[in-house]
Amino acid sequence: MAPPTQPLSINQGTLREQYDFRGFVEACVRNGITAISPWRDKVAACGLQEAARLIKDHNLRVSGYCRGGLFPAATAAERQAIIDDNKRMIDEAALLGCECIVLIGGALPKGSRDLRGAHTMVADGLAAILPHARAAKVPLAMEPLHPMYAGDRACVNTLAHALDLCDALGNGLGVAVDVYHVWWDPDIERQIARAGPRILGFHVCDWLTPTRDMLLDRGMMGDGVIDIPYFRGHVEKAGYNGCIEAEIFSAANWWKKPGDEVIRTCIERYRTVC
Ligand code: ZN
Q1: Does residue 1 lie within any of the structural domains?
Q2: Residue 206 to residue 204: CA distance in whole angstroms
Q3: E strands of the chain, at which residues?
Q4: Is residue 81 part of a domain?
Q5: Half-sphere exposure in the Cβ direction for 236 (13 Å, CA)
Q6: Is pLDDT above 90 for 1?
Q7: Distance (Å, rounded) from C-alpha 250 to C-alpha 255?
Q8: Pairing state of beta strands 244-246 and 8-11?
Q9: How many angstroms separate the alpha carbon of residue 219 from the centre of ligand 1?
Q10: From the CA of 203, how far away is ligand 1's center (Å)?
Q11: How far is the CA of 178 from the centre of ligand 1 (A)?
Q12: Strand, helix or coil for residue 10
């Protein structure tokens, strides 16, 4: 397969431990990176206006903004607070010029076994913020997470489920395809085709065997068992022509290395592996 032509974006989570927002932007720029995906807590620590200025000054493309959603909660008041916070995040994304907001489903409320109820809370939460997102012209990208997170992090676990939500809720809602979360799914080819223009983001890393920590032991592209070109081929066939975003949470390995080395390795693997 030919090397990618779409730009490499660096997700800030890949360099979470090395840099604050300013340091992250400067490291990306000095290594020739033209697109980033910031995390909200890092933007808040920098200051929203200052973050927007840095992005503009360096002419950076912003492939996504991480991350919102997380709708399920025990009480109506808590769910409303989450909806309000997601609306604030949409306003921030509009100011930063983000191409989409990345959303995840959220955990089961504490003590709950009602996964079906949590699914309904996700649909209700999305329906509540979609008018705001449409008005702000910020598309929402629902990212299904690997099923191992269903209880404690994200109760939307397949691309099929995310697309069912898109079908039900309509305009302004799409999906992010992260190879780490969907590589195992035997139905993925059909679901990517079904997604078509609703694919708003494509995230890459690798699945290490063994995986020591399901949250923070992601591999660099090429170091694991995921056939990344297979996924890139299918999202491109479905019409996706956005960034290829490297998102590697790696507490024991890549977070401990110098940031420039991590970025240079991402660039090299993007060219040779993705
Ligand atoms: Zn992702």
Answers
A1: no
A2: 7
A3: 8-11, 35-37, 61-62, 65-69, 101-104, 140-142, 173-178, 199-204, 244-246
A4: yes
A5: 15
A6: no
A7: 6
A8: parallel
A9: 13
A10: 5
A11: 5
A12: strand
**Looking at 106-222, which runs of residues are DSSP E strands?**
140-142, 173-178, 199-204
Note down the domain range covering 208: 8-272
Residue pLDDT, tens place only, 92-110: 999 999 999 999 999 999 9
Is 2 within a domain? no
Q: Provide the 8-state DSSP code for 11.
A: E
User: What is the whole-number distance in angstroms between the Cα of residue 199 and the centre of ligand 1?
Assistant: 13
Supply the CATH number for residue 69's domain.
Answer: 3.20.20.150
Q: Which two tokens stand for residue 133?
A: 């997102």
Position 114 confidence tier, pLDDT thresholds 50, 70, 90: very high
Domains contained in the chain, number: 1
What is the overall mean pLDDT for the chain? 97
Could you report the per-residue pLDDT of 179-217, keeping only the tens digit for each?
Answer: 999 999 999 999 999 999 999 999 999 999 999 888 999
| In contact, 211 and 255? CB cutoff 8 Å | no
**Ligand 1 center to residue 247 CA distance, Å?**
6
CA of 149 to the centre of ligand 1 (A): 13
Helices (H), 17-75: 21-30, 40-46, 48-57
CA–centroid distance, 13 to ligand 1, in Å, is: 10
CA of 143 to the centre of ligand 1 (A): 7
Is 3 part of any domain?
Answer: no
Q: To the nearest whole percent, how much of the chain has pLDDT over 70?
A: 100
* Cα 54 to ligand 1 centre (Å): 23
The answer to whether the bond into 210 is cis (omega within 30° of 0) is: yes
Chain segment 43-85, per-residue pLDDT in tens: 999 999 999 999 999 999 999 999 999 999 999 999 999 999 9
225 CA distance to ligand 1 centroid (A)?
17
What CA–CA distance (Å, rounded) separates 88 from 86?
5
